[in-house]
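Sequence only, no structure available. Ideas?
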Amino acid sequence: MEIFPQMLISGASGLVGSALLNHFAGQGLPCSTLVRRVPEPASSAYFWDPYHFEFREGMRRLNGIRAAIHLSGDNVSEGRWTQKKKMRIRQSRVSTTQALVELLACLEQRPEVLICASAVGYYGNRGEEVLAESAAPGDGFLSQVCQEWEAAAEAATSLGIRVVYLRFGIVLASAGGALRKMLPVFRLGMGGALGNGRQWMSWISLPDVVRVVEFCINQPEIQGAVNVVANPVTNAEFTHTLARHLHRPALIPVPATVLRLAFGEMADAALLASTRAIPARLLQAGFVFEHPTLPEAFQSVLPS
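Reply:
I predicted one. Tokens follow.
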């Protein structure tokens, strides 16, 4: 008997996508993925080219999927932000989202919900301001990309699809993301705050990310923006908490001038920007974090 998928995931090879696939597999929920390479025969993956809207055979099997989860996006923290890099960042988010909405429009039976990634970069550099989902967007490149990204996803509402865009903070996991890049330096005892360390960091553990996605799929009253963060901390608190967990000192700060020389525009937009986002909508809906504090998150993703 042919098994039809319940979930469709793009960006499934990334940190969050891989964790979601493993989670759904553990629950016995069949998933299909959209990939940009020709998959193996009898695979649950489908080739697509979102920049030229090419989708190969098998669309019939996507009729009636429960949820589409869109996680594609070029890594913003790798390399300097040249004009070419910034174009890739924007297209890999906005253009692919537009293509996915076009694909969903072609289905006879559309999914109940589209879960689309976004980021707390939507708010820009806001200092000490506490940022719930109702806060206005900020300024700068990342904020503009997030606004366009969310608008592209919102277009699916005209198809009768509930749309949720997840404004991700820093996802903590040892296998990838920002934390994986920090660990070698901190394990050598050479870690420290970035700049003055007073900028706020919005973070969440990878296990809680998986639970948030599942929660948003299962809660029909949730739509629009959701801050996927736990309790924000300053960069100084983050680095000292990580160092304590690893039983290492954190005595070597990285001056802002060095970061700007090394990373250019990205330093101010991503490394030195202060974003104090809070999970107002999740808490209002009754979500309970498994790892609400930073020490608990580190204990989960970096067991001693």
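Residues 166 and 226 are 5 Å apart (CA to CA).
Hope that gets you unstuck.
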